[in-house]
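Work Package 3 (structural annotation) set out to generate three-dimensional models for the target panel prioritized at the project kickoff. During this period the team completed the workflow that converts sequence records into discrete structure tokens, so that structures can be stored uniformly alongside our sequence database. As a representative example, we reproduce one entry of 226 residues exactly as it appears in the project archive.
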Amino acid sequence: MVTLARVDPPENLFKWYFGKFRNTYHKGCPLVLWSGERHRKKMVDKKYESLKIENIVASGVIAESIDLAEFSDKIENCELNKKRFPGAVYRIADPKIACLIFSSGKIVITGVRNDKALADGLAIVLKSLKTAGIEPLKVPRIAITNMVCSYNLDRYINLNKLAVTLNVENVEYEPEQFPGLVYRIKEPRIVVLIFSSGKIILTGGKTLEDVKNGLDVLEKKLESLR
């Protein structure tokens, strides 16, 4: 009589399975699917490799009201000339951004390249308000309103052919006045500036996901030119 010893399975059978056979390959092995997912993610990442954020514009409210004269007098690098512009222009060196501040408490922040720069810049503005004796909102209402990104398609684009292929209502192309083609995408609401060199500018997105989705729409349209 043979006595079989009880062997308990590993606590995490799934993790154990992949850890044991992570380098194996055979038909029907779930690892193949898993590896495919990972490879596809790398492909997607590579697709957007040349996508670069050039500028982020954010706006909102930071105070109930702001005495611009007092603020500009007490804070360095803050200019106020109401004859030229109704708001104060506050330039911050690090991160390098510019803020338009209005007496209503509203603000427009531009020159931002990433979320950290936006958060750091906003923190400096709020600290400056307190320094000037102005009480900011406990929770400022700030949101990204526009993203400007650049991208390289890495190939020549026949703009004349593209202008004919795309919906005329969504295209502006007058090479005598400007060398680029303007393509307005309805969903997501992205405006794309396309040059024959393959370089493009995307604007209008509020998130990087919006920009990527707009880029995907453009790529599908360009497939018809090949």
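Residues 1-44 have pLDDT under 50 and may be disordered.
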